[in-house]
Amino acid sequence: MIKLLKYDLRRNANLLLGVTVVLIIGELVLLWSRAALEIKLVLTVFFFIAAAVIFTISSLKVFDYNIKSVSRRLLPVHAFSYVWASLLYGLINTLVLTLIGIGTAFYFFAKIDTSLIGDIFRIPVPVMAGIVVEYILVLVYGYFTIYVTIALARSITRKGVFWVGLIIFLIITNVTGWLENLMFNRDSSQIFSLVTFHAEVSNGVLSHDMANSSMNLNSIGTLIFEVLLCAVYLLVIKWCVEKRIEAK
């Protein structure tokens, strides 16, 4: 798995480093400029969305390449390794964007309301741990959902994979969302259910509450359900790779 990950990182190093460097330089130039704070905020969001789209497409292309590559099939690697290597690749990319985003967020916190920074450092450790854990789980669940979509689409057809995958993705997300709403009165679109945080802007003034833990049976049940779904998706991907998807 580590060898596969290293290969993927080397193969896409120019793209990843290029986007990261351009994003950092662009953000520094933007933040040091004399533009209005609102313009800086809008452009910052745009830059990060663009970088996130590029990184996400790269991560999905890595997985798609892994599961159908002849050279990978010749290696003595378990089918699960294709998934874990692709997942780590995607998580590393997301971690880079997250760290850059945290640094940028602190800049805006200092400009909008300096008390926000102090409040962040006063968040209880269990709450902060819950935010980190749920953030990682949300990413893993999202990647697994798209991975199983790609694997099923590749196993069904050779042409029109995108459209078949889109239909499969819509079916999976709607069915799982309906099941979660039925069992736990919530769906997978409700993220960060282990913590609560409220902020609003009124007359140009930002008001906010301290983040607090909001663990309950429904939120825990949703997380457990999605973890089990990830296990099911992993088995489905393994079956598709070993039995259905032809190497090219």
Features:
two-stranded antiparallel sheet, 248 residues, two-stranded antiparallel ribbon, 9 helices, mainly alpha
Task: Count the DSSP helices.
Answer: 9
Order of strands across the widest beta sheet?
1-4
- Low-pLDDT parts are none
Helical amount: over 70%
General shape: globular
Radius of gyration: 21 Å
DSSP E strands, number: 4
Q: What is the rounded distance between the termini?
A: 20 Å
Order of helices and strands: HHHHHHHHEEEEH
In percent terms, what proportion of residues is strand?
under 5%
Tell me about the largest β-sheet.
2 strands, antiparallel
Account of the 3D structure:
With 248 residues, this protein is mainly α. It is built from nine helices and four strands; from the N terminus they run H-H-H-H-H-H-H-H-E-E-E-E-H. A two-stranded antiparallel ribbon has the order 1-4. Strands 2-3 form a two-stranded antiparallel sheet. The model has no long low-confidence stretch (mean pLDDT 80).
Give a quick precis of the structure.
By secondary structure, this protein is mainly alpha-helical. The chain has 9 helices and 4 strands, in the order ααααααααββββα. Strands 1-4 form a two-stranded antiparallel ribbon. Strands 2-3 form a two-stranded antiparallel sheet.
